[in-house]
Write a structure and sequence with these properties.
With about 750 residues, the chain is an all-alpha fold. The chain is built from 42 helices and no strands. Helix 4 runs antiparallel to helix 5 and helix 28 runs antiparallel to helix 29. The longest helix is centred in the middle third of the chain and has 21 residues. The chain starts with 8 loop residues before the first helix and ends with a helix. InterPro entries: NatA_aux_su (IPR021183), TPR-like_helical_dom_sf (IPR011990), TPR_2 (IPR013105), TPR_rpt (IPR019734). Keywords: Repeat, TPR repeat.
Length: about 750
């Protein structure tokens, strides 16, 4: 034992109480006890570390870190000091550093269950599943009767790509569950077991296991879906068909079941459309209210059959006044013949309804609203084909017919937007908003159009009508993680060349995705206890794909464009400062600036509203008086500190986004945004073009050309491809760093192929 760790019996008893105070979250009481020990043993490392974490939980982070570091220095072999240091990093969501601290803690106490459990959670968060499996295996050795430890090990093996090992673990665990009553947790565990068998590719075994556990599973729908899937995989067509028909009978509105039945019977092929139509007609007769079957019938129908079905669908929707009719029929516009049939039908209906009030000459009279919705459809149809004058005239005719229908004004606004008239579009959308002041959707649409017209102040006032009254609208949008608003406002500021605010908004969206990833941490333990394993594994996998979402791509694209603009602007001050420096001095100065920037970014946790933690630490009272106080005084003090804390949070320390403009490495910052896109959506043309722009400025010539090659393969006639090739050739003609002749030869050959 370290000499700095020895305590007299009296202080040792107090130290045990300090540990209890931390577990019970009695931070003020624990702090006073820790300070009483430190009066006699000022170098006691473990007490110093605990004092640090108490201070951290009392909003004195900077001071807390100093005490924890001092504690670690005074007792490098204490697992408590390292564990506390790891907890501090984990609280700051610095998981990689926390994992290092836990590794040190386990070096000096490899059998501590709490440290092992926390370490396994961190490894899962960091996606280091092999290490997580090792930690969970050790946990299981210490507590073999703890069900979450068995389940956690199985999940770690599955996520590490070893479903066979996960199965072995679950089988051992289930031996102890044979006589347990049927409940939700055990039901989910059995379905998870079945899923693992499926992941090994043993569909026969999965089907047998499913039949065995069916009576003990509460999720009957999942059992039926899995049975249909396994029978399909095993080629048992008749049994699979019966299984899918059973699912359709229970829910005829789910298009997945119907599509899988068609696929099972081979009716999705082009030469089997007649059979598909026959099957769909049979199903529609059984379930006439199923919109899913009706839509698929239109999809597979051709020629006269399609026209007959389209007539029934369109006339019925126009009679009922279904605003979403165009969205439904637009799916079939990819087929020129079907598109022509639909256009002819609706245009003929419009003319006939105006003339005689019926769909056909001498036909039955239709409701007066049928003409309104027919004109509404036609306006959208013309807008889709960019026949904008015709679309505008048609929607105006519809508005003259019924001037109080909100959807008409919204469509008119969209037509004006497509006509390149953003100001008029915003005005019309505001007219729509004023027709129904209680509709949040229309309010949001109006704000979006105002942002497209660069009327930021008006947009914020409009969106503020539905936000909290005591909070700034933009802050509320951040709190609600409203991606569309932050992205649109970012693009508006970028168009106005207000690059600081633009980056502030774009980075806010990027931080949303960081938050989504960090929010999963609490579920690593929760889901193992509740046995919601299928949903948990789906969550882990979806989190890994999260940054492939279109909203992230849109925000990243806007931010990268701004960073590229900043990178291309001459930095006169830098050139003056470095004019008289040696190369070594320049390198040292750049490294120093980079470290300062990284530190600032780390402290600036909320890019839109929160103040930096350093500022919070410097302005928070640092008194650690050990005098006793009454419970009332403590409560009053807590309220004062909380009010002070809330007040600081509501103050935006960087409203103009100047901190983002001060970056010394805009190209590197841009690459941090595009890297997830390259990993998750490399087949997206925009992703490759963004990567090219960055590689070009980094003078990574081969990677830049590789990006252009990918663009060429994805879309050979892309309008930007030629200009990008010219940009590449121009940059190669005067590189800042000489290119190796061998690399130059390879570059020339790759460019030549690309041009051809």
């Amino acid at each position: 034992m370290s000499t700095n760790r020895e305590l007299a019996p009296k202080e040792a008893a107090v130290f045990r109480n300090v540990l209890k105070n931390y577990e019970l979250r009695q931070y003020k009481k624990g702090l006073k006890l820790a300070e009483s020990i430190l009066k006699k043993y000022p170098n006691h490392g473990e007490t110093l570390a605990l004092k640090g974490i108490f201070l951290n939980n009392l909003d004195k982070k900077a001071e807390g870190y100093e005490y924890v570091k001092q504690g670690v220095r005074n007792d490098l072999t204490s697992h408590i000091c390292w564990h506390v240091y790891g907890l501090m990093h984990r609280a700051d969501k610095n998981y990689a550093e926390a994992a290092k601290c836990y590794t040190q803690a386990l070096k000096y106490n490899k059998n501590d269950v709490n440290i092992l459990r926390d370490f396994a959670l961190l490894q899962t968060q960091l996606r280091q599943y092999d290490s997580a499996a090792e930690a969970r295996a050790q946990l299981l050795q210490h507590r073999p009767t703890n069900p979450p430890f068995w389940i956690g090990l199985a999940v770690s093996y599955q996520m590490a790509g070893k479903p066979d090992k996960a199965l072995a673990v679950l089988k051992s665990h289930e031996e102890a569950l044979k006589d347990t009553p049927v409940n939700y947790e055990q039901s989910e565990l059995r379905m998870y077991h079945n899923w693992l068998i499926e992941e090994t590719g043993d569909f026969e075994g999965a089907l047998e296991h499913l039949n065995t556990i069916e009576s003990k599973v509460t999720d009957k729908r999942s059992v039926k879906e899995k049975r249909a899937h396994y029978l399909t995989q095993l080629g048992k067509v008749d049994e699979a068909e019966s299984a899918y028909r059973l699912l359709i009978s229970e829910n005829p509105y789910d298009s997945r079941y119907i599509s899988k039945l068609l696929d099972l019977k081979g009716f999705t092929k082009d030469d089997k459309k007649a059979e598909a139509n026959q099957l769909l007609a049979e199903l529609l007769a059984q379930y006439p209210k199923s919109k899913a079957i009706e839509d698929l019938s239109l999809h597979y129908a051709e020629d006269d059959s399609f026209k007959v079905k389209a007539v029934a669908t369109i006339q019925n929707a126009l009679r009922k006044g279904v605003p979403s009719l165009f969205a439904t029929m637009k799916k079939y516009y990819s087929n020129e013949k079907k598109q022509k049939v639909v256009a002819e039908l609706v245009e003929s209906y419009g003319a006939s309804l105006e003339k005689s009030g019926s769909f056909e000459e001498n036909g039955a009279k239709e409701p007066p609203t049928a003409l309104l919705w027919c004109l509404y459809y036609l306006a959208q149809h013309y807008d889709y084909h960019r026949q904008l004058d015709k679309a505008l005239a048609t929607i105006n005719k519809a508005i003259d017919h019924s001037p109080t229908v909100v959807e008409l004004y919204m469509t008119k606004g969209r037509i004006l937007k497509h006509s390149g008239k953003p100001q008029e579009a915003a005005d019309v959308m505001n007219d729509a908003r004023e027709l129904d002041l209680q509709d949040r959707f229309i309010n949001s649409k109006c704000a979006k159009y105002m942002l497209r017209a660069d009327r930021v102040e008006d947009a914020e006032k409009t969106i503020g009508l539905f936000t909290r009254r005591d909070v700034d609208p933009v802050k509320d949008m951040v709190d609600m993680q409203c991606q569309w608003f932050m992205t649109e406002e970012g693009y508006s500021y970028a168009r106005q060349k207000n690059y600081g605010k633009a980056l502030k908004r774009f980075q806010a969206v990027v931080k949303f995705y960081d938050d989504y990833f960090e929010d999963q941490f609490d579920f690593h333990a929760y889901c193992l206890g509740k046995s919601t394993l299928r949903a948990y594994v789906d969550m882990l996998r979806s989190e890994d794909r999260m940054r492939g979402h279109p909203y992230y791509a849109k925000a990243a694209k806007g931010a990268i464009a701004v960073y590229m603009t900043l990178a291309d602007k001459p930095k006169e001050s830098n050139s003056l400062d470095e004019a008289n420096m040696t190369e070594a001095e320049k390198k040292k100065a750049r490294n120093k600036a980079r470290k300062a920037e990284l530190k600032a970014n780390k402290e600036n946790q909320d890019p839109v509203t929160a103040s930096s933690t350093a500022a919070a630490a410097s302005t928070t009272a640092s008194s650690t008086s050990t005098t006793s106080a009454t419970a009332t005084d403590d409560k009053d003090q807590d309220n004062k500190e909380e009010s002070k804390k809330d007040g600081k949070k509501n103050v935006d320390q960087d409203p103009e986004g100047d901190s983002y403009l001060k970056t010394q490495h805009p190209v590197d910052d841009a690459f941090q945004l595009v890297e997830p896109l390259l990993r998750l959506s490399p087949g997206n043309v925009d992703t490759q073009l963004l990567a090219f722009d960055i590689y070009l400025r980094q003078e990574k010539w081969l990677l830049a050309i590789k990006a252009l090659n990918t663009v060429s393969q994805l879309k050979k006639n892309h309008p930007e491809l030629k200009s990008k090739i010219e940009s590449c050739k121009s940059a190669l003609s005067s590189p800042t760093t000489p290119v190796d002749p061998r690399i130059q030869t390879l570059i020339d050959s790759q460019l030549a192929k690309l041009i051809v």
